[in-house]
Amino acid sequence: PADVAGGAGHQDEAAIAVHATSLPEMTMVVRSKRELRITQTAGLTPAGWAADTRGSDVGRRMETMNCTARVATICAVAILASAGVLLAQEPSSKRRPTGPVDRKQCARCHPEVKAHAVTHGPVVVDGCAACHRTESVERHTFSTSDRVCVQCHKAPEAVGPVQHKPVAAGDCVGCHNPHGGANKAMLRSTSVNELCLACHDVSGGAKFAHAPATRCTDCHLPHSSKHAKLLRQPRAKICLECHKTIRKAVASARVGHAPTTDVRACFNCHAVHASDHPSLLVDEVNPLCLGCHEDVRAELDRAVHVHEPVVDASCTVCHKSHGSDNFRLLTAAYPETLYAEFTEENYALCFGCHDVEMITATTTTTSTGFRNGDVNLHHVHVGNRRTCRVCHRTHAGPNDRLVRESVAYGRAGYELRIGFEKTADGGGCAKTCHAPAAYTRLARLDDGEPR
Question: pTM, whole model, 2 decimals?
Fold first, then answer.
């Protein structure tokens, strides 16, 4: 103060700076006998005692003192105490209580428990004791039961037998903040998906992702379910809730595909969350199909010649995956029986690739190589109600043009040997459906002789 700075004749008013080396460094400012203050200072050097007396008698007396920093500090404190000094120190750091506390006042030391957009009800009413049980008053420690949440919240066991592992372990707080959160679910993450993906890696870096994989609870229940994988519905139904076109195909198909309706349903062929294959298939189309259709796989393994669509495309060129109105899940019409009347509509499957004139033309030199001179032998055979598979295999075989060695006939499946032999410009068949016959593309033959 200005009146102190003048100093002369005021023995009871002075400013004294005391530097202590063994105790926290303090600056003591003496304003009068009735008002003294101690404030902490920083950056002072332990160079013994220094006094800024500003000309006061007290200062001159302090300058003559020759004692250690500890003794000087004790002396100063004693002087201040005798003068009725009010000591004001910086507040100490928060310390753990060592005695009984008012359980309604927990938030005074723990304000973070209420710092949420949505606060848990017991926290709102300072009901900490509802969840936290005192273990030691002296150490101020508490514990909670692993079933504390279900005291208020309905036990998941009452909902379904399949439980999420954290729920079964009573680890509710693994997903939920017990004090509050950004939404009413009080999740520990900003979104459900972010929370789920912290434990479940569902994509694995795959090329194709299922859109609902970004909305986990569209398909899964978080706590428990009646169905495997915590699904909201059985596997055979849950996918069809979104895939309505497939649902219609499965429901209305005259011929159904067994994997679509068994217990695994869609999961037999499709990955649920992500895949490296289109349509989220678990494998490429042909290996996937042949994983079940072992008879066709065996046929392909020993084949010399393979039908082009099997090699160049996939099974789905001719077969539907989910259901069809045509036998064997065919994508278009084809006669079911070995013998059938010919119409273009009945052979729509074949004419998806083959020119219809291969069958309809009575004579030709270009539409087919199976001709006797210019007589179209396809027209002869199919016109006589022989379907394609009387002479040809569907997927693969040992002979060119997939010509069969024999054909199953009758209910007993008796094998009629065809005995086809190819020549440079034609071929011939052994006695089976008719007497042995040969043909050449160079000229018409009649019972093996040129006409």
Answer: 0.68
